[in-house]
């Protein structure tokens, strides 16, 4: 079994991202690396590029960007606690994530002022305004 392999000095970046549970499948991890959404030590890399302990990875997943330091290597996907032991998120990344969450919480929902769907008459008036 190859969980936290100390003997291996490097692992493919797409395998590591999948094993560390940043992506659900290895093909999604490969695609993200190819599209430049994963940077290793601030450099674009290919999916077969090797990850070593101590490398810094910047992973963009949707709106969220995580900056992590590689602490362990694994080629297989294990339980979540084992996957979380493979990396450590930087303090800057944690602070940015919390700030984004706070900003989302403070934003006013645009649909809160809409009480119901427009009536047929109101919809006709809206359509008339939009096409003139």
UniProtKB/TrEMBL annotation:
Alphabetized InterPro entries for the sequence: HSP15 (IPR025708), S4_RNA-bd (IPR002942), S4_RNA-bd_sf (IPR036986)
Position of the signal peptide: none
BP terms from Gene Ontology: cellular response to heat
GO molecular function: DNA binding; ribosomal large subunit binding; single-stranded RNA binding
Domain of life: Bacteria
Region spans: Disordered: 95-132
Pfam families assigned to the protein according to its UniProt record, in alphabetical order: S4 (PF01479)
Chain ranges of the RNA-binding S4 domain: 11-73
PROSITE patterns assigned to the protein according to its UniProt record, in alphabetical order: S4
Keyword terms of this UniProt record: DNA-binding, RNA-binding
Family of this protein: Belongs to the HSP15 family.
Protein's recorded name: RNA-binding S4 domain-containing protein
Species this chain originates from: Undibacterium nitidum
């Amino acid at each position: 079994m190859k969980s936290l392999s100390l003997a291996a000095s490097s692992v493919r970046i797409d395998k590591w991202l999948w094993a560390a549970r940043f992506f659900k499948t290895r093909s999604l991890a490969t695609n993200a690396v190819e599209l430049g959404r994963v940077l290793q030590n601030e450099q674009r890399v290919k999916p077969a590029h090797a990850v070593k302990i101590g490398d810094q990875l910047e992973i963009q997943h949707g709106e969220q960007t995580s900056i992590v330091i590689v602490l362990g290597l694994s080629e297989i996907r294990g339980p979540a606690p084992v996957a979380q032991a493979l990396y450590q998120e930087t303090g800057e990344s944690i602070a940015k994530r919390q700030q984004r969450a706070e900003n989302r919480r403070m934003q006013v929902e645009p649909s809160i002022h809409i009480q119901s769907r427009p009536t047929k008459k109101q919809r006709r008036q809206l359509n008339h305004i939009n096409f003139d």
